[in-house]
Design brief:
The complex is a heterodimer of chains A (about 600) and B (about 400). Helices cover about 65% and strands about 0% of the residues of chain A. Chain A contains 30 helices and no strands. Chain A has helices at about 10-20, 30, 40-60, 85-90, 105-115, 120-135, 140-150, 160-165, 170-200, 205-210, 215-220, 230-240, 245-255, 265-275, 280-290, 295-305, 310-320, 330-335, 345-355, 360-365, 370-385, 390-400, 405-425, 450-470, 470-485, 490-500, 505-525, 530-545, 550-560, 570-590. In chain A, helix 19 (about 345-355) packs parallel to helix 21. The relative contact order of chain A is 0.06. Chain B has ten helices and 15 strands. Chain B is of the alpha+beta class and about 400 residues long. In chain B, strand 5 and strand 6 form a beta hairpin. The chains are: A mainly alpha (about 600), B alpha+beta (about 400).
Amino acid sequence: MAHNLEPDLDTLELCLREGIAGNEYADPREALGCSADTDDSEVARALVRLVAANDLEQIGTQSLHPDAARHPSVRPPTEVLADPSFLGRLSTSGDQGLSVERIDDVPTLLAVLRAGSRRQRRAALGRLRERLADRRLLHSDEVRNAIQTIAELRDVELGFELAELRAELPGATGRAARQEHEHWKRLAQQTHSEVRAFWDGQSNVDAIRALPGDQRALLLMRVSELPDAMVHHITAIIEGSDGCVPLESRIGLITSLRYARDPRLVPALVAVLEAERGELVASAARVLGGIDDPRVQPALAERFERSFVAEERIALAGALGMHGDCRGLGEVRSSLDEDQPQLPLQALQAMGSLGSPEHTDLVAKFLDHADASVAIQAARTCARIGDGRALDELTDRYNSTSVPALRAAIEDALSAIAARMELRGEEAVAIDWSEVGDKPAPQKGSRDSVPAIVLGWRDYFMARLWLLLGRVTWAIARFESSAARRDDWAVPLIGIGMAFARREQYALALPAFRRAIEVDRPRIERNPILVRAMAKSFLHRAEQVESEGRQDVARGLVGEVLTLDLRRAPGTVRFELQRKHDVLRREKAGDVDSAA
Amino acid sequence: MSTRLREAAVQHLRSLGTGTGEGAVRRLTMDVEAEGRVEMVTLSLRDGELQCVCSDARNDGPHVLAALRFVAGLEQREDSSPPGPIASAAGRAEQSPDQELASALDDLLTAITRVGVEKAQYAPSVDAALGRVVSTAPQPTPSGLGRFIGRLQHELRSAELHRVARLLQGASELADALRAEAPGLELQQRLSAWLGTRPGSLPQVELLYDRTMIEVGREWLSGTERASLERRYLVDVRSGRVYREDRPRNASASLGPCPRLVQVGLAEVETGPCPQRIRVLQYEVRPEVPAESWQQLQQVAVRSFAEVTEGYRQSVQASPSLAEPFALVAPYRIERNGVFKAFDAEGRQLVLNRSERRGAVLAFYALLAEGAEPAWLAGRLTDTGTTVCITPFAFGTRDLKYTRL
């Protein structure tokens, strides 16, 4: 076949673009110098050869394409929440318009801290930190009130920022925070050397995986302070290129990073979105939702557009919502609209970032859900939406429920809604806790006789003495004797629980704590030391039985402790309990989709 | 078109295969000769409706009618058994696997050229031709061929005429190599790059000993399926050569995060498209890269953009379908007033590719706006037809800090 030596390239390109079959305007045969009866396959080869050869000759002939140097557009247009209120327009940074950085008024900052989105709350804490650094203000009532609020704040999502700010506070709060930081430094140093040993081939155990849950949560809470080598180790596990960590632990590590903000994690998490499926994608999306980085939104959006797994899509929708992209709102809303939603917990979590006051009724109907964890999440979502119309339903539910954790969540939700109303300029709602449920039962007169009380205290002090001398068995016997003398006295039972918890005998500590809770639950819930010991006992025992393969028992233990009011327990313990609860729930439902 | 003919064809299509329990037929593709032309006709059932697509873009033309008559059993046939396997355009009775693959590649090229690059992504004939390439190729699909299919599908979606032409030209060269009776060294290398080491041919590898490499970037690439290949880019800190380590999904490769320092005791490097594929056999890995290694990396980065462009052109000309060059460049100066402009000492410019890895490009711009000063930039090279540009993966600053994008 003789080809034309100087073919009309424009015609050839047109033919290749529009196809040689049915092209009424141009026939490449003539341009290629082929006869009219030349077979299509031969024409196709000749056509492609010429177009490609010309293209390859052109490469690099220009040093600059006119469009290539322009800045890429920041974001594709998406549906944006139209919330014209103060909080709706409040940005986290910037010198113009409404910005947290420009707020000087401490009560307003505290209200944002209670009612804002996660980003706004972080920014409010940052701004408070700046304000508190001004020593001249330390003695004003406003600042004293702020310090007290910060010391009492139990926001798990802001664990790292709170720890940083508390470390700068004077007094016991500051000392405790600084102590915790020192503990973290030792833990990080130790883990770093173990990570080094892992990559040197001296150990085949992943140091982070081997840590107890609360320690891991503490270590990862400050992931942005970890050295590069540690973060690279974590990213190796996230991407599955460590060679030894199983899929469940990989998912576990990603869920442990839920509130991390370190941009060094982004490439690995984006790789998970690109290449994996199911629970891995959902977990990675939840982490990415909280990280401010330009790489996040395009990756989430791209994955959302091609995902067809409901769990992935809901998690991706929620994460996109945290970046101001509400393309998944319709899907989350219709998921909650179903008579029996398949993923109510996940959809409610996503609604926390996507929802607006018009979704209040939709969310509030889940306050009566039979599953306490769903009802608790509904209360948290109501808090994030912050619509005053939910106040009545929350109050009703508060009065009717006997689950302490749900009551605690409703209390937080009511405070958040009140703060939001205050920021909107509406009449602030002062909630009179004496009018809503859980009224403290009138103190009954002690029915114990004086000798029983005296002997009870005597046995108790003897037990403490035996404990001091290391005679645990004798001490426990004395505690038991003390408890037997008085029916409604929780102190010796707490003593037994604490004695076993300190010795890490969690299986023995649990029955004592359970009995103490039966007798006097508020005493434990309101004491930070007791609630920490109790929660850790449940957590560590759950880890023990889980490692023995008894997932059902572990699930029961975690579910049991999460029905209590744990607001005074350390954030890392609460975070780990909730994380473990979610993981065990998914394992039960069998919807952990294996990574492809 | 006769409604009765359509109904008869639908009925026959529905009945095909259902009686034997081997699975129902949902789509038929056939080459039909009518009015002196051979066209590819695809008949498919979607939601109970019959869809007819012809490569001449006429859905009611003589080729479609002939195909419907054939399916409905209205044409003269010597026996009444269902039609056998569809013959390819270049169909022959007995073909070796290599020749079958070559025919399938030719059919793919013909199908795309007939339909046109703009419509090819929706054309059932192109889908069918791609399916035939995969089914006639060795199983599991070799990574080179898989990557070609992934790239072709991507370029068809974006209707990039020149890139599609380049990829098809590479496929055409492969078909020629497959048909060669006694392929020479060059053809054997081409076949190995596409199909892996073949029985009877010696593997063309170079052995490397005692090298220090840094992984500067990694990405998931599509093949016959999405995200079917993880590619890591390793740079030799002495020579500055870039290697790729390909890890197919569910297969193993060297361990470690990105970035990492790899002390390579022994490795095999394939002779093939740029960047050359490496298999790291003996190695030590460190997740923290010392500052002096970053300094070495900075020193071996390419400083002349003319050299980068020329290297890119040569790589793509040598392997139009498989070359995906990756470069480590050290700009002489950078302009950052709202846009990114990198210049070498001779004033030549290198620009960013904004069509891929959009998040990475945005992050790069954000870091530049914050005052980051890249001393080197690592990225995959592409072109916009005439201009060579770089898709950023990582950069390092003068204070020896690394940022993965």
